[in-house]
Amino acid sequence: VQLVESGGGLVQPGGSLTLSCTASGFSFGSAIMGWVRQAPGKEMEAVSIINEDGSGTLYSPSVKGRFSIARDNAKNTVHLRISGLKIEDTAVYYCQSRLGPTTTRGQGIQVTVSS
């Protein structure tokens, strides 16, 4: 199982970016996918999840209305579109899969929001 994130970087407040996660080594279309993040000095926070066929999504109250998750089961990818970035969105973002009892997390990618 492998999850590889991309698309992070330095963004100004109010800006946007899209994180992508490419999955391999498991039945992607059967897995619940999601994103979690960890800000400096804080605990891991669940940001968003999307169900197996993409018909259902959930968001943390702190990101609802600004973040949008989507998946492409043909390409084994899941994306997180982030807009209206705030300083407090600065964190390492991790792609996460859940297939049955098994949860796997990628290596993470840094998103820094700063002027």
Task: Give a brief outline of the structure.
The chain is mostly beta strands and 115 residues long. It is built from no helices and 11 strands.
Write up what this structure looks like.
This protein is 0% helix and 54% strand. It is mainly beta. The strands form two sheets. Strands 2, 4, 5, 6, 9, 10 and 11 form a seven-stranded mixed sheet that branches. A four-stranded antiparallel sheet has the order 1-3-8-7, with no helix packed on it. It starts with a strand and ends with a strand.
Helix content: under 10%
Helix/sheet category: mainly beta
Largest sheet: 7 strands, mixed
Instruction: Tell me the fraction of residues in β-strands, as a range.
Output: over 45%
Topology:
Blueprint: E1 2-6, E2 9-11, E3 17-24, E4 32-38, E5 45-50, E6 57-59, E7 67-72, E8 77-82, E9 91-99, E10 102-105, E11 109-113
Parallel strand pairs: 2-11
Antiparallel strand pairs: 1-3, 3-8, 4-5, 4-9, 5-6, 7-8, 9-10, 9-11
Notable features of this structure?
4-stranded antiparallel beta sheet; 115 residues; 7-stranded mixed beta sheet; mainly beta
